[in-house]
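Notebook entry, cofactor series.
This is the third protein in the set we're modelling with a bound small molecule. For this one the ligand is flavin-adenine dinucleotide. I'm keeping the input format identical across the series so the outputs can be compared line by line later. Sequence and SMILES below, as received.
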Amino acid sequence: MTLIEGRSIGFGGSGRNNGQVIPTLPAAEPDWIEGKFGDTGARFVDLLQNSASMLFDLVRAEGIDCEAEQTGWFQPAHSAAHMRISAARVAAWAKRGAPAQLLEHAESTELLGSDKWFGGMLNPTGGHINPLMFARGLAKTCVAAGVDIYENSPVQAVVREGDHWQISTSNATITAHAILLATNAYSGALTPDLAPKIRRSFVPITSWQLATEPLGDALRAGIIPARQAVSDTRGDLQYFRYDAQNRLVTGAGMIFKTTARARLPAHVGARLTHAFPQIGTPRFTHIWNGFVGITTDFFPRFHYLGPNYLGFLGYNGRGVALSIPLGRQLALALTGAPEQDLAISLTTPKTIPLHGFVLRLAPAALARYRWRDKHPPNL
Ligand SMILES: Cc1cc2nc3c(=O)[nH]c(=O)nc-3n(C[C@H](O)[C@H](O)[C@H](O)COP(=O)(O)OP(=O)(O)OC[C@H]3O[C@@H](n4cnc5c(N)ncnc54)[C@H](O)[C@@H]3O)c2cc1C
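Returned structure with ligand:
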């Protein structure tokens, strides 16, 4: 088996993400998934609810050194209406056997070290990792299992020749019986014409990440003392997790990219100060960004691209845990498992009409999310 990476391992979302190991999708609820995909959807929901545990089990089984902490994932509700949505979410997951719990305001305040949220959903199977260490550790595990990895080798073309595929980079050609196109939100970023339909079937959104300087012991003990990964119910998400040096790793979306880097520390710092006044004005030591692949219904796509040629994309910001079981599903699909045994439905890529225009307009959606965050529905 051969892995061809255009840059270096973890160059894409896998090395740049916030490291939150979350066993849910951002918008697709279990009832919706089962309603849309039937038995396949039920199998998908089962994988989703076990995805965080699968990742941590893999880390333990393979001894991957990635600062993994299975401390739980908490989704605090930012409004009374969202607290009711959290209650419905907990009920939907609990019905399926997931260990989701609803925390009321007092418990949430204790968990967060902040009384700014109304309560929320806790899932103890979640947690966090250092994503780049995880990606590199996983690559090492693959090499030990016999996988050949070529870095700095952007694939230029994939061509069908008789009963096999030819994959070309600038200085080599590989022949393969089966291929998985795993370029996800970076589809088109290195080779625009590799899979043009895929490139035009989703919206890559820039997500910014910031890490504070390490917090002192007293501050750390008062802010998320049990070290859960936290991401709230806002459309313009607020999220935090600790790294091994006790930095708070957080982030934000920005409508205007050009001056974003200069404006981010004040913007994200003000949010942290509001949530955790004891932190004062935080100092950020690291800022970076990456593309999140967003689909029209916020549900991932699994594409049939030709005989023994599959692709996938669109974890919608929740790929850390989910990519573990779905990688296995894609491997099963490529090796001929019947579709009725799989948790994924294969489709062909559908381009988004006026894609170029949508790409330019997409960051402005954040303004709408921010407005909705301030004016929650009256449920
Ligand atoms: C800033 C940020 C924060 C996030 N936070 C979270 C989080 O906290 N929790 C969570 O669950 N999810 C999060 N996500 C989403 C998550 O990171 C992704 O869903 C996941 O990493 C996708 O993994 P992947 O392997 O499918 O794609 P990627 O890791 O993006 O890999 C795609 C790879 O394809 C390569 N490539 C592209 N074109 C070519 C070519 N022509 N030839 C060869 N190689 C090519 C790229 O170099 C890249 O390395 C976040 C994403 C970002 C960007």
